[in-house]
């Protein structure tokens, strides 16, 4: 599903900074993977490259059979639109739109008929347990509810890949656990490939696989049995 071959990324400024250095990485279809590492290790850079938001300086990235380096900007936009859902730390909801309208927006951009858009948006908000918040603006929602709207929007096309950049990082501990459980439930139900960048070890260790970065290199790749999100601690 996701293949990186010899991928490097440098940023030019007063001096050249290497964010990633010749990474080789394979993430299979349907995996749920966390990416961890200290600040500056290259986590967000890696997620942006996988999501087609940036291009590598060297190497090749393949997403669901498509070589991103072979695509022009319109091609990258199509891949992001059709195959990738993004969940960000700060929600990025439009403040003047209701929950229903925020979730509907990507579908309007795809030119779907209004009735089909409304049906899909309501279905997704029901999926994230927000049927009573359809007409609420973001400022009328709690942080957890806003993140649920953001997740519903990311799922609007049922993308095969779901990318989360610190999706619980702006939430209190209890709400973060609720959002984490929701992401696991959606992963189990929809079978999407999920990649989460996080500083939170609870989030990281809940995933069956954790990749550790340091100084732009992969320094660890741990696979574990999935954690039961409904289980109570002993």
Q: What is the percent of helical residues?
A: 25-40%
Q: Output the number of helix runs.
A: 7
Distance separating the two termini? 36 Å
Structural class: alpha/beta
Q: Rg, please?
A: 18 Å
**Lateral strand order in the biggest sheet:** 6-7-8-3-9-10
- How large a portion of the residues is in β-strands, by DSSP E? 25-35%
Walk me through what this model shows.
The structure is a single chain. With 234 residues, the protein is α/β, with parallel strands linked by helices. The chain has one domain (2-198): P-loop containing nucleotide triphosphate hydrolases (Rossmann fold), CATH 3.40.50.300. The chain has helices at residues 43-50, 73-83, 99-109, 114-127, 143-154, 173-190, 201-206, and strands at 2-11, 17-27, 32-36, 58-63, 66-67, 84-88, 161-165, 193-197, 209-214, 217-223. The protein starts with a strand and ends in an 11-residue tail after the last strand. The model has no long low-confidence stretch (mean pLDDT 88).
Index terms:
4-stranded antiparallel sheet, single chain, Rossmann fold, 234 residues
Helices and strands, with pairings:
Layout: E1 2-11, E2 17-27, E3 32-36, H1 43-50, E4 58-63, E5 66-67, H2 73-83, E6 84-88, H3 99-109, H4 114-127, H5 143-154, E7 161-165, H6 173-190, E8 193-197, H7 201-206, E9 209-214, E10 217-223
Parallel strand pairs: 3-8, 3-9, 6-7, 7-8
Antiparallel strand pairs: 1-2, 1-4, 4-5, 9-10
